Amino acid sequence: MAKVAIVTDSTAYIPPELMNNYPISVIPLQVIFGDQTFLDGVEIQPKQFYEKLQNTKVMPTTSQPTPQAFEEEYRRLLAQGYDILTITISSKLSGTLDSAMQAKKVFPEAHIELVDSEVTAMAMGFIVLTVARAAQQGATLEECKALAERGRQTSGALFIPSTLEFLHRGGRIGGAAAFLGTALDLKPLLGLQGGKVVAIERVRTMSKAVNRLLDLLAERLNGQKPIHIAALHANAPEDAALLLEKARERFPVSDVSDAVLAEVSPVIGTHTGPGTVGIAWLAGM
After folding, report:
1. Which end of the chain has fewer beta carbons closer than 10 Å to its terminal beta carbon, N or C?
2. Is the pTM of this model over 0.85?
């Protein structure tokens, strides 16, 4: 029976200490500042990204990985005898899955499966980690794919951007467009639903937005456990640490398998903008 390797993309931005010893490969997306292109999380890290963002007159854009980037990694893993499961950012947010599909066609006889996570950041990261643990314990490619598809049903993300400007400019705002022009004292609460960014509601003050976010998280978890939770942030570590602390207080310790503080990758930061905080989760797995 072939061993299974997991290929994901850089928007998962899994903290390195959680990835140790697992068969996980990461294909970077690209951050583009004018005529400069950087590999997400490889050639540009969050700290550098926000410093550059603060000092540039050219707003960044992003691009999916090339099919060749996936092809090279597939070739390397296949040569080592792996079956491959690829788990990518939502296809409604990026063309990354399409690049993986094109690369797969180069190896028509190989055992390569693809899963659209319909999420990103650590919502996808937790799916990847769960599947990688199963692969390490001997799960087959079919079993790993089924696990990833199950995780897609019980994962999600909610977030509070400091501004909608970046989502609007990047074309990722979806149903949240209704919140454009929101008064400064109202905080938009957004989420991922069906692979898209959707508007949930507007809440007065940040503290009320955080409490409402945790109420919505509890509703979406619907008693499922164990719970894997990540407090996400785009250059707002203190706000995210407070959010994580409140999340831990909300649920019994015995129900929480992971509770981590995680940055979002520069690619995601390009679209959310600095100051964004949120919660990503996976439940029941």
Report:
1. N
2. yes
